[in-house]
Structure formats: C-alpha cells, structure tokens
Amino acid sequence: MLTIRWGDPKGIKTDLILLVVCEDKAFYGNSTIKALIEQGSLYPEFAGKSGDELTLYSPGGIKAKRVMLAGAGKASELDCEKLRRVAGKAVNKALNADLAGLLICIPEPAPGCPDRAQMAEALMEGAALSNYRFDYYKKDEKHKPLKNIAFHSDKKFAGTLASLAEKTEIVCKGTHMARNWVSMPPNDKRPSRFARSIVKAAGKHPMEAVVLDSGDLRKNKMKAMLAVASGSSSRAQMVILDYKPQSRDKTVVLVGKGVTFDSGGINIKSSAGLETMKQDMAGAAAVAACLVTLAQTGCPHRVVGLMPLVENMPSGSAYRPGDIVKTASGKTVEIGNTDAEGRMILADALHYAVSQYAPDVVIDMATLTGACVVALGEKIAGVFSPDQALAETVAASGRRTHERCWSMPMPEDYKEGLKSDFADMRNVGKNRYGGAIAAALFLSEFAAGTRWAHIDIAGPAYAGNDSDYCRPGGTGFGVRLLVDVIKNL
Ligand code: BES
Ligand code: MN
Ligand code: ZN
Predict the structure, then answer these.
(1) Residue 83's domain is classified under what CATH number?
(2) pLDDT per position as a tens digit, 248-299
(3) CA 384, CA 186: separation in Å to the nearest integer?
(4) Does 230 lie in the same domain as 138?
(5) Candidates 228, 267, 339: which one to mutate for ligand 1, based on the most atoms within 8 Å of Cβ?
(6) What is the pLDDT of residues 4-37, one digit of tens each?
(7) Fewer Cβ within 10 Å of end Cβ, the chain: N or C?
(8) Which residues contact 324 (CB under 8 A, 6 or more apart)?
(9) Residue 202 and residue 86 share a domain
(10) Rg (Cα) of the chain, in Å, rounded?
(11) Is residue 323 included in any domain, yes or no?
C-alpha cells in the first residue's frame, strides 16, 4: 500500500527514511531534512553523485531508525528513471533487512527537473515495482512484501498525491500480474490453463471475457493458429477481453502473442537457454494485464484485448516446413520455418481484430524475433508502423515510462524477401538479415489498412539479471507502456 504523510518528519516513527540528494542543489525546504543531509555531507564518500549511497543509523533528533541518502547527480540532470531506481533500491534495502516501515520524502521541484507530481509518481512506481518477488514455487523462502510504503510531502499536496498513489498502485499491480504470468513455468500455463487464469483475473473487473476454443477457431477459419498448435497436446485458445465504457471515444484493439512455450517446433531450437522460451507469451500477459488495469483506472476508449494462445511443439502431428497454410484472411502462407510461429498466430488474430471490430487503432505486442534483440539489445523494444505519428506516440510513451521503444523502418521493397514460389507469401525471409523488419512486414499484410503498430518486445520482456526495481524473470514490460499509449491516443 502506498500512503501519504505530511508534517515534520522528525516525529515520524519508521525504520527507514529515503532522501534524494543532489550534488549541487538542496532538494528539500524542511529543516529536519536539511539537517539530515547536512550530517551526510560530513562523509566525503558521499557527494550526491548518481549512484552514491549513505545510510545514517539512529541519527540524532529524529524518531526514524535509519536515513538513507541516495545521490541523484546534478539537479538539472535529474529524470524520472533515476527516481524510480533510488526508490527501488530503498525498497530492496528494506526488504533485505526485514524492515517494516519505509518513508520516502518527495523532493521539491527545481529548475530543469520533472515537476512534483512526476517526481512523486516515479518514486511511487520504483517503490511499488520493486516490492515484488516471484516466490510461488518456493517452499521456504517466501517473500514478505512491505505492507506499507509512505510518501512524505506538504499537507497541501496530500490530496493530489493520494489519488496519484492509488492510480500508480493499480498500474504497478498490473505489472506484477504480467510478471507472474511470464515467470510461471510452461507446464503450469499451457494454453487452456493460461486462458482460464486470464479470465479469472478479468472477472474481478468490469469487462467481458470470452474464450474461443479450437472448435470456434476452426469456424473462424483460423488455420494459422491451428497449424502452430497442432504439434502440442494442448489445444489453441483465443482469449478476448472487451472493456466497453458507457461513452466511448475510440475503439482500440490490443493483440498479444501468447506462445506459452516456443520449442521452435520441427525447426527445433538449440538447447542453450531454451527454458527462457516460457517468456514467449509476454505480449499476451502485457495485454491482459493492461486490460485489467484500464478497467480499474477507467479509460475513455473501448479497448479490446486479443490473446491467441498456443504451444509450439515438435511431434508427429506438428506443422512442417514446406506446409502451406491458409490464414483467416484467405492469404496462403508457405512455412519456411516452424520457429517463425508468432507471426502465424498474429496473422489470424490481426485479421480477427480488423474484421470484427472496425477499430480506430490496432497495436500488437510480441516477443517476435531474436533479430530485434540483436538490433536493439535486451532493454529496448522495436516499434514498427506505417503510420509515423503512431510510432512516435508509442516512442513518446516509451520515454515517459522508461519502457523504451525505438522506431524501426518498414521499407516496401524488403517485402520482396517474403515472396513464395507456391503460396501468397512465406513466413520467413530469404536470409536472416533484417529479421525483425521481415516479421513486421509479414504482419502488415494482415492489418489491412487499419492504423496499426507492432511492438517487438523479445529483448525487454524477460530479464536474466537483477536491476534496481525488477528481479530476474518476467519484467512486465509493456503494461505501463500500453496504458500510457492508450491515454495519449
Ligand atoms: N519467440 C521467438 C523470438 C524470441 C527470441 C523471443 C528471443 C524472445 C527471445 C520467435 O518465435 C522465433 O523463434 N523467431 C525466430 C524467427 C526466425 C525463425 C525467422 C528467430 O528470431 O530466430
Ligand atoms: Mn519461434
Ligand atoms: Zn516465438
């Protein structure tokens, strides 16, 4: 729970107080806080540089047991991400030391800095996102999240900050939800079970939830989805979440790739890191969690989430390289590689999106290509859209949320590589170069003139290492991003 406190911090009983300290400027007007920072400045190892940290134990004159000073560099260079990170670190410190209470003092705005609400929101996000571990499968090391994280400011901002805290907590819980799904082992999230889990989460909030089973998919001629699922003993499912507010401005469809495990199929992947292919449903997880979030925070648009769920496995009934599959749109696809399965299920889902809902905007999110990770690394997603303004809207949301997206090109002439001698197109290019672009161009064939963007999250969906507000495993990337994109459409 994120709560708001005001008044002199001197009298506040807590285990840990976090203060953000700059190299060159006082960030707080309160005299108690100023005196604490003064105490910190007696230690030459702490200069307020970004990453500097100093803890004062039982400092005189205040009730709190510890004060953590976190350096944030020059005031003019302070940004929201630095604040998320210092708050994340403070929460980790409190969790590791088994502390019960934490108070984070919100700095006062200085020239060149984000404004007060932005700083508060960033600190709240960093703290809430960090207050999380995936411990479902641990018998002994159960995580005890901090029950309460308090934020300190002046009384006159308390109302604004309280509503900000409420909203931020919902969005961060949405991110935790996506992280849980992505980190969950693939034996416990095979398509029908994952579908039920999504429907259960959605059922607690005002939206419609429907699941198309493989019979329904057949009726809808979604043979690309069925082909990918045919190697698995778990059948394909399509989950549809529909959030319809009373008055609706636009209709937005979000499509999330939901491959619950990607073995590669008959073009089987090599064994190194294969276990991380449980992450291949991160697009679906982000879309589902985004809908659950929007249904709580409210949204002026009708938002539909489509989550095609399959498991890509090799077997005697699996689809083969060389197969020609007829997609729901009528276009035929020659399978060049069964490991390019994501674009197959998205082809049917995108066609369903544009033909069923006549949407104003369609956005798909997918762990689609290793090539995108080669291009942009593990922390930045690729955004592809024939509509530059839409790509820029997504990139701008990426900058605000620090779920970064880099706009990538979709050159018409590269479509050449997807030509097939036998079918309307192939599911892979002629060579491995520009693989993320080839995949995006393939998808563009199914978005049929609708305003559409594709976000390739193969890099940032999953973390191998710890960072300041995220543990190894699913990152929940995409939830805060999509919520922000929809807010700005
Ligand atoms: N799910 C993978 C992409 C991926 C890679 C996701 C790394 C997360 C981390 C996708 O289905 C895939 O296998 N893509 C192939 C495409 C190729 C066969 C054209 C790839 O990237 O190698
Ligand atoms: Mn694959
Ligand atoms: Zn895949």
Answers:
(1) 3.40.220.10
(2) 899 999 999 999 999 999 999 999 999 999 999 999 999 999 999 999 999 9
(3) 29
(4) no
(5) 339
(6) 999 999 999 999 999 999 999 889 999 999 999 9
(7) N
(8) 332, 333, 334, 335, 422, 423
(9) no
(10) 24
(11) yes
Task: Return the biggest CA–CA distance within the chain.
Answer: 81
Residue 185 CA neighbour count, 13 Å, CB half: 6
Residue type, 261: F
Q: Ligand 3 centre from 413 Cα, in Å? A: 25
Verify that 212 and 127 share a domain, yes or no: no
Global pTM? 0.98
Region of 157 please: left (phi>0), alpha (psi -120 to 50) or beta. alpha
**Does residue 478 belong to any structural domain of this protein?**
yes
Full DSSP string of 75-107: GGG--HHHHHHHHHHHHHHHHHTT-SEEEEEPP
Q: Is the pLDDT assigned to residue 217 strictly greater than 90?
A: yes
Active site residues: 269, 343
Structural domain span for residue 117 = 2-169
3-state SS class at 475: coil
Q: Which residue's C-alpha comes closest to atom 3 of ligand 1?
A: 369
Percent of the residues in the chain that have a pLDDT greater than 70, as a whole number: 100
Q: Cα–Cα distances in Å, from 12 out to 7, 143, 361, 391?
A: 9, 26, 49, 47
Question: Are 231 and 376 in the same domain?
Answer: yes
Q: How many domains does the chain have?
A: 2
Judge whether 270 lies within some domain: yes
- CA 171 – CA 487 distance, rounded (Å): 13
Distance 485 CA to ligand 3 centre (A): 24
Of 114, 145, 169, which residue constitutes the final position of a domain? Answer: 169
Instruction: Return the closest-CA partner of residue 240 out of 113, 349, 138.
Output: 349
**Is the separation of the CB atoms in 169 and 151 below 8 Å?**
no
φ, ψ dihedrals at 311, nearest 5°: -120, 130
Tokens standing for 117? Answer: 């609400």
296, 245 contact by CB (below 8 A):
no
